[in-house]
Amino acid sequence: MNKYEFMAQLKKHLRKLPFDEVKEAVDYYEQYFDDAGEENEQAVLSELGSPSAVASQIVASFAAKDTGKSVQKGLSTAWMTILAIFATPAAQPVALAVAVLAFVLVVVMLIVVYSIGGAGVGLVAGGIMGVVTGGSVVLRSFSTALFFFGLGLIASGIGLAIITGTVKLSRIGFAWLAKNVGEFILWRNNK
Questions:
Q1: pLDDT for position 69
Q2: Structure confidence by residue, pLDDT tens digits, 80-91
Q3: Residue 170's domain spans which residues?
């Protein structure tokens, strides 16, 4: 393998990353080869190892630093982390265990977070029904109408607070998961 084959394979393994990240990584390794000189090309290739291992470290590093602010970005980062695990062939058994663990964590987190969110949606719906019920009995019993209005507004407020908390919790949870799995990959590759 020579420098050009190494760089071509590295680019191939990094194609899922944003263009700026790929460009930065490719520029770094081209500069690394240039600094070593043509006479030391084989030594540099031996030192770096396989392009897939280098790409795995780059993707894991990207996943660890790019924890994102949104759920979609967190999911994308988690996906990048899982791809980084499978980019290193020597780590296949560990990769499978980490992938299964990450999948289970994501499923459990989704179930818990969205169950709580579902309860919030139920409270908002119940609150709206309480307000509607209060409106329907206002002419019969003003005190009963006020009771249902108040109960409906309280339930809706609590439901909206739970929904807001669910959204924030899912953002934080996915960012945390992606960051820690990425750091685990970096630790495992440096071991």
A1: 44
A2: 666 665 655 555
A3: 90-190
The verdict on residue 178 lying in a domain is yes
Looking at the chain, the number of H-run helices and the number of E-run strands are: 7, 0
Rounded CA separation 91/100 (Å): 14
2 in any annotated domain: no
Task: Tell me if 84 sits within 8 A of 102, measured CB to CB.
Answer: no
Tens-place pLDDT, residues 41-85: 888 888 888 888 888 788 777 766 655 444 455 556 666 666 665
Give the chain's domain count.
1
Q: Residue holding tokens 């263009």?
A: 19
Rounded to the nearest 5°, which phi and psi values hold at 156?
-65, -40
Question: The dihedral of CA 163, 165, 168, 173: what is its sign?
Answer: negative
Spatial CA neighbour of 3 closest among 130, 100, 37:
37
Spatial neighbors of 67 by CB under 8 A, at least 6 apart, are: 74, 77, 175, 176, 178, 179
Q: For the segment 106-165, what is each residue's pLDDT rounded down to a tens digit?
A: 788 889 888 999 999 999 999 999 999 999 998 899 999 999 999 999 999 999 999 999
62 belongs to a structural domain: no
111 located within any domain: yes
